[in-house]
Amino acid sequence: MTDLTALKYTDEHEWVALEGDVATVGITDYAADKLGDVVFVDLPSVGSSVTAGEVCGEIESTKSVGELYAPLTGEILEVNDAVVDDPASVNGDAFGAWLVKIRVEPADVDALMDRAAYALLTGGEA
């Protein structure tokens, strides 16, 4: 089980786990629930650069198409091909089905929300 209090969060409903200078990024269970059944995931290419707050991918569900925003600026080191191959895995385990790993400036993560702030954003549903 993932320690949700150890993660950081964005107002675009993404979670970030930092290890050294590598940020692992996924969408929250709240986002997965609101999206409904995820049927397609489009992620940025390994080696590409992403900028915090800008669209870097797409998540489609049976209900809607959602944009994936980069929570931090950096270089894409790895994408989770298992999620691309089986998008529904996001619904089954939002905190286990990470999307991308980004090399970042570790201090930038401090600007993201903690679990309590994210719970306030989602009306306590997080």
TrEMBL record:
<keyword id="KW-0450">Lipoyl</keyword>
<dbReference type="InterPro" id="IPR017453">
    <property type="entry name" value="GCV_H_sub"/>
</dbReference>
<comment type="subunit">
    <text>The glycine cleavage system is composed of four proteins: P, T, L and H.</text>
</comment>
<feature type="domain" description="Lipoyl-binding">
    <location>
        <begin position="22"/>
        <end position="103"/>
    </location>
</feature>
<comment type="function">
    <text>The glycine cleavage system catalyzes the degradation of glycine. The H protein shuttles the methylamine group of glycine from the P protein to the T protein.</text>
</comment>
<dbReference type="InterPro" id="IPR002930">
    <property type="entry name" value="GCV_H"/>
</dbReference>
<dbReference type="InterPro" id="IPR000089">
    <property type="entry name" value="Biotin_lipoyl"/>
</dbReference>
<dbReference type="Pfam" id="PF01597">
    <property type="entry name" value="GCV_H"/>
</dbReference>
<comment type="similarity">
    <text>Belongs to the GcvH family.</text>
</comment>
<dbReference type="InterPro" id="IPR003016">
    <property type="entry name" value="2-oxoA_DH_lipoyl-BS"/>
</dbReference>
<feature type="modified residue" description="N6-lipoyllysine">
    <location>
        <position position="63"/>
    </location>
</feature>
<dbReference type="InterPro" id="IPR033753">
    <property type="entry name" value="GCV_H/Fam206"/>
</dbReference>
<dbReference type="InterPro" id="IPR011053">
    <property type="entry name" value="Single_hybrid_motif"/>
</dbReference>
<protein>
    <recommendedName>
        <fullName>Glycine cleavage system H protein</fullName>
    </recommendedName>
</protein>
